Amino acid sequence: MVGNKSLPRLQDSVSRSATPIPSASSSISVEFLDEVATLTEDPNRDDASRATGYIGKASEIAWLQKLCTKVNKLNTNREQHRLSHIEDSVTSMDYHLDHMWIPETVSPEPRSLPPKPWAAHLLSIFFKSVSPSFPLINKSLFIFQFEQAFRYSRAQPSRKWLAVFNLILAVGFRCYRLSEPVSGEDITDDHVFLSRAIALSTTPGMTPQYTGLYQVQIDLLLAIYYLASGQVNQYTLLFD
Amino acid sequence: MDISDILRSWQANGRAARLAISMGLNLRADGDQIDPVSKETRVRIWWSIFALEHVLSGMTGRTPCVDYQSMSVYLPLPYDEAQFQLPEVEELLKSAASRERRLQWTIHASTTELNARDQWFRTIGPSQSLYFFHLVDLSVIMHAATNTVYRITATTDCFRSKIPFYQEKLQSWLSSLQPAFAFTTYNANDARKNVACDCREQVSLAIAYYSSQIILNRPCLTHPDSKNGTNIRIPRSRFEKDTAKSCVHFALALVSVLPDKPDLKWIVNMTPWWILLHSIMRALTILLIQLSISLVPVMTTDGEQKREENEGEGAEAVRDASKKALLWLHTMASQDSSSKRAFHICQRLFYLIAPAKALDSQDVPSAVLLAGQEASSGLQRLGSFGPGSMKLQEGFVNWGPDYTASESVDEQQQVPLSLDPVLLSFDSYEF
Asked: What is the pTM of this model?
């Protein structure tokens, strides 16, 4: 939904006649960066547009969309085969968009811990690969807490610590999957970690206790996880 | 239909920012209730939120929810946790005054302050925290730049005059990098330095910098305007032409950071892999735009002497870089469905632009276009969701939040799992 009040709406090609028709050999200006940001379509109109949301003029998705429109126009002028027409809606250009709906994993035991060597490995991946760009975790403190969590069965970690822990594992796992691509194995570990984290960070009852520094870390880690996430696993499961 | 992960990330970071502001993480903390190390932890949390917000805002083109002018929080110290015990670091942690004197963002600092700060950085030596400082420093500059150059509200032509100001800030930033992090020289007379492919920080800073330059210079990379109803091109100013050339130059530079041969392990070990796809797409889109214009003279990355390339040579460099970027997307696509979609979109565009401009496209297998058509029709099917395609039954009630009736579909009417046709038609990619 790139705003530009002087460009024709996607569904309404008739309105193109409102602007002077350029001659076949001149290029069409796709300058839209000067315009006031305007919403010309409804981002709420269907599932695809809701999933994409508004895309502004600083995004390469918007640039791609304008380029497609231009290329389509050029090819129309040259009377090329209809095959070469590209669908130039913003949702078609949104390469992040996923068309598949995946049912969520629900982990029955949110407080359970993974095996310690595996957890330590994912932790070290996180601190080496992700933490330098997002140093939201006090590493020495966290490592100390990690050791405590596995050492004494009676030292129960707090819910929120466990939520942060599971999110770190989830992000670390995404990195691990990128470097060790193997299909056919159990590759949904991060979904388990994620569901545990979400279960732990929401308190039961009517009024959620949505406060505190931990909650800031939890949301930030969630944001990092989703950014680092591509829906790889599902497709590998289906097609391999 | 699942919502995109970028949208989820956007929402989660928004919550984090809102909660952080309610806890005053965007403000400087004095007083004894928080110990110095905890203060530093909170400072780093805040700047991590800021950095991520800047990334997401750049990916989606939306307004960020944090404003760099609404912060009084201290800057993150360029020392790792392991160094917090050192006396000079302890002093900085405890004394707000000395901290403020030594640490400023490039965008705010005077030349003298910058020189003093950069000299101090050279004595510290490279650390992950110093790398983070540089990263956020760049984000702050670009946050301000994007706010000015891509304004939502009424624009006048003067936004273009702000571009040189931020170009200068980016140069200052570049010159503040110490040798361990410096991925290029800013002085055109020096010998060219290549990005060290085995230095994680260099690769990450290089990608961030080139990506920032692309965004900054992008407003001048436009198709030529014609006077109404004629073929007469409206002449462009020297500044606009140079800025357009720079935009393409930096897109080429970003692609040149990648090794010639795609390597998934290199991605994981050496890059900020969570934004690599977006960075490549940003650069590749510029190159595709350039191919479709093919009239703007371009500097290649080899032409650091700033000599003008004639149209033919420039076009070849752009075309080669586009192919290299497509090759990388193709390799990444084996791991990641977003890359796969990105590859399909750009590959189709590339082969449609190339014949139109009579570039070398003899190696295009015809199967590619057919695959593209399936993808196109599959994606077009998406447009059939929504109110226009619903079978309106008798007794239809609008349960939506407004009169567009877009969200009236019964929740039980889940769309069955539909396989994305783009992912079924995956041909091998060759130059």
From this structure: 0.84
